[in-house]
Amino acid sequence: MTTVELTPGEPGQPRTHALVVGVGAYRHLRKGAQPKRNDPLFSLGQLTSPTISARHFTDWLLKDFHNSSAELGTVELLLSEPRPSLAEHDSGPSSEVEYLSPDGTRSWPIEPATIDNLEDAFWRWRDRCHEHPGNVAIFYYCGHGVLLEDANVLLAEDYGAKRPRFDGAFNFSAMRRGMEESCSAGLQMFFIDACSTRPPDPPKLLTSGARIFDDDQTTTLTSPGGLALHAAANGNSAYGTIGQVSRFTEALVRCLKGLASQRRSGQWVIRIDHLQESINDVMDFLPKIDGGNRQESMLLWSKGKGILLESDRPPLVPVVVRLVPDSAALEANLALIASTDPALVWQFSGGPDSTLNGDGWWIDGVPAGKYDLRADFPKGRFRAQTVEVVITPPGPDPDPHPLSCEEV
Length: 408
Known about the structure:
The protein is an alpha+beta fold. It folds into two domains: 3-311, Rossmann fold (3-Layer(aba) Sandwich); 316-404, Immunoglobulin-like. It contains six helices and 23 strands. It has helices spanning 49-64, 115-129, 172-182, 247-259, 272-290, 326-331, and strands at residues 3-6, 16-23, 72-80, 98-100, 107-109, 136-142, 145-148, 151-155, 169-171, 187-193, 225-230, 262-264, 267-271, 298-303, 307-311, 316-321, 323-324, 333-338, 345-349, 361-367, 369-376, 385-391, 403-404. Strand 4 (98-100) and strand 5 (107-109) form a beta hairpin. It starts with a strand and ends with a strand.
């Protein structure tokens, strides 16, 4: 079993159930334990980011997920983790994989993401989701993905083990449609962190062998709402730095923690129809902080405007402060003071942050709200000033308006 969390709750009450999959070790691809060099996908190789990203997403679920209408019930987790050194030829999956809870108090042995384990986990997850129309279904996958015709096909650890070779993969597009047609869960969320490129010499989808997780039973249901997002548009790659959380998952979790939230009736809520725009905004500003390639997610399916998450606390938002002229930025002492609590202050000085190409300061984690931005100049060359700023998620504009400073 791969269930890492269970919140029983009251019988018959709606719950959120998640299936999380991270595949970094592929036995039969380049540098795998049993490489098959004649496979057209051989060059895809091993990955370090997927299991780190899947753990990161699971940490968020166990620590920060809150939906008062459907609290977290279960999380199914599958991980195929590469051995520590990808330089070794035999870099198949680690023999023992565990998941440690965010608070460090519990650990669970985790099964590898083989196609059989994935199919078994899918049905456990799907059946739980189907138990109540108020349930929320969350599916997350990070690993290799390809396009076969117009279908998104996702690879399991043992892709290529036998013929047809795509027997070690599954048709996500069909799986998603099947959930919409036959699962009672009223809100269904799918996040795919994978490339979306067409393989060389692709087989026909019908004869590819890609598994279809569908019981072919269309039930009469209230049409569920939900969202399916792919990390990259068709024909494009999804990016991740070696040994780090992927770009899409970093943006996704930041948004789920609050950067996609909006103020509604005294609460901060995340609506499904607002999530993609926020993720793309965050993926736009992340490269300005840590470098790397830009990418934009693709909407695969969307229906409704349901609320996924809610919080009484304002989200923590990144802020960029820029001053002009450049000489003012080098001489300024700045303070960001909360209008509702003058004791809540961020102070920064000594020249702009080099991570912003020398033209601004980056402050990560300021609660959304109204602030006074005060600029003082100890050398007396520029006039001190205070302006009101309103900080709202998801964060800094691509080109924030600079604070103009007057010489004395």
